[in-house]
């Protein structure tokens, strides 16, 4: 799956013949799973129509500060557009537009959005070869790079003037490849292997019944999805759940019982850099599993239970270089019990949940956690969606590797 999947891309189109290539560019962005909004300079509409780019992007195209045909003259908010974007790409970037960007000459909606952007900005120059090498253009390149903008170099080939040389805007496929390579190189967990466990385990009583719990698996799935977004190679060991991963690059290992999860974790543990054990694993299982459905033929029924293998303890005992994160769901003496768990299971960090907190626990969209590290530093967090809790957890992982 492309690193552009889910990205919000603001495409600025300026008035050069290469503007016709933006139709293919938008199509490729959409194919990669990106969300696209387009701002066109007035001159660019001579080369490609707003209707074409609107149809391909599935969004209205913006060109002026307000829609002149609209009786209410609704303002196109350049700040809102700029803050919406995860990245901004100006392609083609003509000599005129580059000069305005470099000098802050804000006379159109595209430049206003550019000057308001807080996201990474890429630009793909397109002009004739002598314009491309002119000192004023080279000065614009230098200034824009110093501002932190990223240049997608022009290519050699036949130009609109009939001349041949440097100045052709990079082909849409090459722009996509450039963006993907640049974004991937900056992902903080690129090259790291992360093992995540999620969901409940089911311990069979007979072919029909089982002992389980109310875990939906959402916390673990959100962690896996976020880790993948940050560039990690993720293996997700998941107990029974209806959830699906958002990124198909995540390797999902479906398991049922605690023993299944134990085996899967130990299979992948040695090659992992990080383990985040978010699953709610059964502590006990029936000592004997009936081969046939147990009949309701008495007023009382008892099941003899035995302990399951402690997955987290076994991983802590085998730990070498791994950064090991566990979860604790407590109802009393939360901090003290979590600290004991860190020591007994050789953890680097524990994520403490308390059922006493409103909005936390199983089958909830939110969670309220407290981080406790192996040095017993305690960091309580606010109630957040589980997606944002996952982001906080992965920030701890990123911080570990940036030491």
What does this molecule look like?
Its EC number is 4.1.1.36, 6.3.2.5. Pathway: Cofactor biosynthesis; coenzyme A biosynthesis; CoA from (R)-pantothenate: step 2/5; Cofactor biosynthesis; coenzyme A biosynthesis; CoA from (R)-pantothenate: step 3/5. In the C-terminal section; belongs to the PPC synthetase family. In the N-terminal section; belongs to the HFCD (homo-oligomeric flavin containing Cys decarboxylase) superfamily. With 403 residues, the chain is an alpha/beta fold. It has 2 domains: 8-186, Rossmann fold; 193-402, Rossmann fold (3-Layer(aba) Sandwich). It has helices spanning 22-31, 50-57, 78-84, 95-103, 109-116, 129-133, 135-146, 172-185, 218-229, 258-269, 311-318, 334-345, 386-401, and strands at 8-13, 35-40, 61-62, 87-93, 121-125, 150-151, 155-158, 164-168, 193-198, 203-204, 210-211, 233-238, 251-254, 274-277, 284-286, 305-307, 323-330, 349-354, 366-367, 369-373, 378-380, 384-385. The strands form 6 sheets. An 8-stranded mixed sheet has the order 13-12-9-14-17-18-20-21, with helices on both faces. The chain has a 6-stranded parallel sheet with strand order 3-2-1-4-5-6, sandwiched between helices. β1, α1 (22-31) and β2 form a beta-alpha-beta unit. The two termini are 30 Å apart. The mean pLDDT is 92.
């Amino acid at each position: 799956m492309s690193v552009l999947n889910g990205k919000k891309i603001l495409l600025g189109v300026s008035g050069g013949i290469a503007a016709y290539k933006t139709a293919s560019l938008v199509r490729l962005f959409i194919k990669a799973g990106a969300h696209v909004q387009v701002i066109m300079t007035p001159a660019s509409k001579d080369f490609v129509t707003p209707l074409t780019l609107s149809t391909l992007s599935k969004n209205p195209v913006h060109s002026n500060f307000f829609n002149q045909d609209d009786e209410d003259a609704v303002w196109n908010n350049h700040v809102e557009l700029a803050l919406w974007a995860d990245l901004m790409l100006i392609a083609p970037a003509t000599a005129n537009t580059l000069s305005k960007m470099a000098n802050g000459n804000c006379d159109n909606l595209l430049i206003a959005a550019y000057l308001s952007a807080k996201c990474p900005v890429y630009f793909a120059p397109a002009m004739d070869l002598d314009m491309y090498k002119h000192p004023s253009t080279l000065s614009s390149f230098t200034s824009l790079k110093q501002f932190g903008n990223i240049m997608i170099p022009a290519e050699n080939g036949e130009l609109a003037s009939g001349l041949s040389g440097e100045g052709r805007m990079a082909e849409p496929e090459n722009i996509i490849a450039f963006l993907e390579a640049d974004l991937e190189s900056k992902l903080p967990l690129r090259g790291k292997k992360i093992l995540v466990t999620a969901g409940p385990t089911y311990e069979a009583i007979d072919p029909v019944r089982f002992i389980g719990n109310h875990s939906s698996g959402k916390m673990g799935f959100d962690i896996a999805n976020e880790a993948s977004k940050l560039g990690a190679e993720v293996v997700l060991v998941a107990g029974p759940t209806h959830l699906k991963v958002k990124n198909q690059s995540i390797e999902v290992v479906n398991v049922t019982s605690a023993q299944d999860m134990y085996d899967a974790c130990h299979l992948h543990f040695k090659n992992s850099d990080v383990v985040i054990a978010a699953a709610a694993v059964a502590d006990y299982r029936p000592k004997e599993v009936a081969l046939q459905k147990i009949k309701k033929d008495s007023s009382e029924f008892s099941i003899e239970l035995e302990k399951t293998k402690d997955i987290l303890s076994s991983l802590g005992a085998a730990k070498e270089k791994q950064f090991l994160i566990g979860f604790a769901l407590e109802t009393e003496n939360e901090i003290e019990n979590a600290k004991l768990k860190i020591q007994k299971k050789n953890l680097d960090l524990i994520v403490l949940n308390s059922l006493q907190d409103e909005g936390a626990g199983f089958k909830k969209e939110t969670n309220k956690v407290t981080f406790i590290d192996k040095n017993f530093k305690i960091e309580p967090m606010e109630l957040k969606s589980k997606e944002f809790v996952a982001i906080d957890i992965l920030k701890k992982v990123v911080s570990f590797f940036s030491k």
